[in-house]
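Model it.
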Amino acid sequence: MSTNENDRHGAKAATMTLPEGYGRRAAGEDPAKREQILDGARRVFLRDGFDGASMNEITREAGVSKGTIYVYFDSKEDLFAALIDRQRSRVVETVRNALHNHDAIEDALYSFGTKLTMHLVSEQTIRSMRTVLGVIDRMPKLADRFFSTTAANGVSVLTEYLDKQVAEGRLAIDDTDLAARQFIEMSMAGLFKRCLFGNLPEPKSVEEIAPIVKSAVRVFLAGYRPEL
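Modeled.
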C-alpha cells in the first residue's frame, strides 16, 4: 500500500464514529452502580430512618454524585421503594428454593416457614415496617408498594406451591391463598407483632422459631391433608 493510500486509510479510520452508547452503558442502566447506590441508601435509612435520611447523606454514603443518584432514582421515596423491591426479590428466591428443595410436604413447609419468619422478624424488616407505618398517612403510595400483593411475595410463592399439591391430590384446600396466609401467620405466631412493637427487641434465632413453625406445620396439615 502506498504512503498516500495509508494516509487516506488512517484519515478514514479517524473520522469513523462508534455507535451511540458503544463501550459504556446508557445512563441509569449500570446494575453495579445501582446496587452501589442502594447499598448506601440502605445504610442511611437503617441509621437515620426515612425522615432523617437526606439525599445528600445518601450521596456521601454511596460514594456517588447527586446527579448520578437522580439518573437512577427520582426521589428518596423512589429509593426506599426500590430497596423494598430488592429485598422482596431476594426473600422470594430464598423461600421458593426452600419449598422446592424438599419432596415431603412437611419438610417443605417447615423450611419455608422458618426462612420466611426469620426474615419477617429480622431487625432490618422490622425497622423498615416501622418506617412505613410512620409515614403511611402522608405517603400512602409508599405503603402500597411495601404491602403490594401484585409483586411476587411469600404469600404468592406459597399459594403457587399449594396449588400444585392440591392438583396432585396431596392436599385438599378450597382457597389456597387463604391457606397460605394462615400458614404464614401461624409460623410467626407470638413473634411478629411483639417484634414490631418492641416487646421482643432482640433478633430471634432459628432455635426459637423452630418450635413455632413445627407446630404450624402440624396444625396446617391436620386441617388440609385429604381424608383417607
